[in-house]
Amino acid sequence: MKITISKVLPDFETLVVGLFEDGEFISNGRVLQDKQIINRIKKFSHFNGGFGEFFSVALSDGKNVIIVGLGKRDEWNENKELSVGGKIYCELGRLKIKQATVSIEGSAENIAYGAFLRSFKFDKYKTKKDEEITEVEEIMVLAKDEQLNNAEKSFEHLRQEGEGIFLARTFITEPPNVLYPESYADCIKSELTKFGLEIEVLDKKQMEKKKMGALLGVAQGSSKEPKLVVIRWNGASKEQKPIAFVGKGITFDTGGVSLKPSRGMESMKYDMAGSAAVVGVMRTLAGRKAKINAVGVVALAENAVDGSAQRPSDVVTSMSGQTIEVLNTDAEGRLVLADALWYTQDRFAPKFMVDLATLTGAIVVALGNNEYAGLFSNNDELANRLVEAGNEANEKLWRFPMNETYDKIIDSPIADVQNIAPTGSGGDSIMAAQFLQRFVNDTCWAHLDIAGTAWHEKGTDISPRGAVGFGVRLLNKLVEKYYETSD
Ligand code: BES
Ligand code: MN
Ligand code: ZN
User: Fold this and answer.
1) Fewer beta carbons within 10 Å, N or C terminal of the chain?
2) Atom of ligand 1 nearest to the CA of 260
3) Is pTM beyond 0.90 here?
């Protein structure tokens, strides 16, 4: 779909305008000078501009005006603008309208961006086009004269993030027979190199050399070899320590010998959503030439089960030297992250590191689906900044406690640590975070458990059903707001 920002009202067929609750038409379009339309509508309808409501009128000259309710004027904000953009995209589709001009008070770039985000499609495996669906082909958003240049620039800027999100969604949606560690690493390379990012791929041999026993243990039951991909963006001076993002990239999680039930197992293709968010945010930082040094590290493996798969009660030695008793092979995310986190802090000594992982089903029980991701951290400042960035980006986080009492619970009787707590301990998501913390040393660190937010069955205003790309907006906001050098 084509989205543009323009200042002239073209000879439109369909014009979308906004109406605040009980307000007046706001637009720079000519039809809208006619405030009487709204009074006429009110005579025969209860439409009053409630947020996200639509009303359409055919004008006598054959033109079409769609009114979208903007809700209460004093509640109007950036995220509402994005939502309205997405809602407009959907409504046009529903009405089978291919092309429309949008004229709404507020920032044109946000409306355009919302529509763009909602327009994500993944139909490469469909061999027939669905005749029923009319695709929206073009949306032109009007900006006021004096804002035009800015709006166009800002939209281009936002679009970089949008492309990062689309890349993440695409990877997450790809089926696991197509996207497995090796093919995924290849795609990361081919998609990111062109933006000036440096990519390194560690293969199994190199991991063996580095003694990444925890990661290798997870991968050993699959015919697909694991990969560890390092993505680097150097946007600031060499002396500056990088920030680091680490992602869980289990391209499919069967559970291993601790096999998952078959019902719902198909959803485990998105068990690499953390890694996809890391790839997406790195793409975004490069696309907008962010003034920051950043590294992204993604640990890619398939948790499958064959004759050489690891067993519950195996003991593996992680890169850190700590031994792990693997009591449940389905708690594999923390195992691959143990080595990825250790590797990251050991090699890069980052300013901080944030890992993203679809780590526990328990986080969905605690926080519900889709709204909040779990936040765990050893540093209050980083945690607070993440919460703030999450609120602004509308990718919300809720912080959980961590402490020594929890930590003790995962001491193993025969190794340094065990990968799950004894039955009945509860707090699975916290236990997982405590496990990770044993592999971060003193590095400033946060862990985001995105098991509930990575995939959306129904979809939102700015994301169609399926992969969300959760984390890209949040982390991009974090960098922009707190860590980028200003010059
Ligand atoms: N990938 C799953 C977690 C998950 C569950 C992600 C639902 C998305 C939706 C993870 O590897 C897992 O299996 N975790 C176990 C941990 C348990 C064995 C302590 C779980 O949550 O059941
Ligand atoms: Mn698992
Ligand atoms: Zn998993």
Assistant:
1) C
2) 13
3) yes
